[in-house]
């Protein structure tokens, strides 16, 4: 029932209607100027399971997902890396270069959605503008679809689809501006040391 209710809710968000889409240059400027924000999130995994938690973004280059129990996972983007901390592991994260992940599109210092080779589709309805993007140099990374509200322009969700066609949707709560956040939130070596007892 939970999956059916979510499917219905998402169908309402994406119901087609006639409205102007927000231009790509406006969306690029919005993401570039996003700065430092905090919000809650709900994640719909490719197998239909749900996760919730707290999200911190400090552009450029920094993001932190703190997953609620019973998940208790942690994902940090910082220092040019994306680190995934599994709560049942030895505390050492799995890491990837941030530039090789779809999240780099959101966290890049200068976002330019107008690159003709980056955006695969740009569409909208009465509630949202959707931008489907893929790095043409790294198609194996899959795609990221960004969903924005129009008035005001605000990032509301994204869907990352991997090369095996598995989709993960992240739905954001209200974005709250923050003057600053502790740099330790995005410090992968610090978090690793804390978890392994080496700090």
What is the H/E order? Answer: HHEEEEEEHEEEEEEH
Proportion in β-strands:
35-45%
Would you report the number of β strands? 12
Unreliable stretches, pLDDT < 50, 5 or more residues? 1-18
Number of domains: 1
CATH H level, superfamily name: Lipoprotein localisation LolA/LolB/LppX
CATH class: Mainly Beta
The third-level CATH topology is outer membrane lipoprotein receptor (LolB), chain A
How would you state the average pLDDT, rounded? 88
Fraction in helix: 10-25%
Q: Kindly, what is the distance between the CA atoms of the first and last residues, rounded to a whole number of angstroms?
A: 45 Å
Rg value: 17 Å
List the total number of helices. 4
Shape: globular
For the largest beta-sheet, the strand count, sense and barrel status come to: 12 strands, antiparallel
Label the CATH architecture.
Clam
Structural class: alpha+beta
Write a concise keyword list for the protein shown above:
199 residues, alpha+beta, outer membrane lipoprotein receptor (LolB), chain A, 12-stranded antiparallel sheet
